[in-house]
Design brief:
By secondary structure, this protein is an all-alpha fold. Helices cover about 70% and strands about 0% of the residues. The longest helix is centred in the middle third of the chain and has 31 residues.
């Protein structure tokens, strides 16, 4: 943990407050992004704003704590998969966890970098990178010993591939959001332009149902689901490429065909 209160022993009630604040912050940041209201986080945690700021002196310190807490949880999932499954399925299940984690954490990373103290973030992030790399390496080594993955796969390449998939799908979603924002600004997404003028719809009419305007319409829901589905399909393709196949274990002494 990187919150200021984590550096010294806490009383039992303070530990409970710390845990509640962290849980509320993780949910709020996941739902509303890194700019989620600190006052609302305190309210959801059942504490006052003063208590929140005693544990976390700034928004950045709270973001860092959530970021590190997610990494610890991700590495704990690696150990759970290793205990519950065969080496190959354990590795592939954890890669899906990693993909979801990477997509959810991009906003946190961008917010942490926003105040310009990049060196400070990098120094602290080294610990997170090491934890993730070690967890991935242990799962990959076990899968390799079990013959579940192709030879020659490296931990750093595997992690880079999952990160690239997450970045590609998230950037695609951001471009869609920006385009939809421009459409709305131009008047292409309001109720009137999607049916009210000719009496064929309005906010709850055909335009909204088709997702061409209404914020809660099908198009917006399908857009985000499509990005997640695309990330899943790309990861499935990557995992299939990692799996060991019979042709990967060709006999060392080829048969005499004479």
């Amino acid at each position: 943990m990187v919150g200021t209160a984590a550096r010294r022993p806490l009383r039992a009630d303070a530990r409970r407050n710390y845990a509640r604040i962290l849980a509320a912050a993780e949910e709020a940041f996941a739902t509303h992004g890194p700019d989620a209201s600190l006052e609302e986080i305190a309210r959801q945690a059942g504490v006052g704003s003063a208590t929140l700021h005693r544990h976390f002196a700034s928004r950045r310190s709270l973001l860092e704590a959530v970021f590190h807490d997610r990494v610890e949880a991700l590495c704990a999932r690696a150990r759970e998969h290793a205990r519950a499954s065969e080496p190959g399925p354990a590795l592939f299940a954890w890669l899906r966890d990693l993909n979801a984690y990477a997509a959810a954490s991009l906003g946190l990373i961008a917010s942490l970098l926003r105040d310009g103290r990049d060196l400070d973030l990098v120094e602290k992030d080294d610990d997170c990178v090491s934890m993730i790399t070690n967890a991935a390496g242990e799962l990959l080594d076990a899968a390799r010993r079990a013959g579940a993955v192709r030879p020659g796969i490296r931990t750093e390449d595997m992690l880079a591939l999952v990160n690239a998939i997450s970045l590609a799908t998230t950037e695609g979603r951001d471009r869609t959001d920006r385009t939809e924002g421009l459409d709305r600004a131009d008047g292409h997404g309001d109720a009137e332009s999607n049916g009210c003028a000719d009496g064929s719809g309005g906010a709850g009419g055909q335009g909204g149902a088709e997702g061409s305007g209404d914020v809660g319409g099908q198009g917006d829901a399908d857009g985000s689901e499509g990005d997640d589905a695309q990330a899943g399909r790309l990861l499935d393709i990557a995992i299939e490429g990692m799996r060991a196949h019979p042709c990967d274990t060709a006999p060392s002494n080829p048969p005499d065909l004479r």
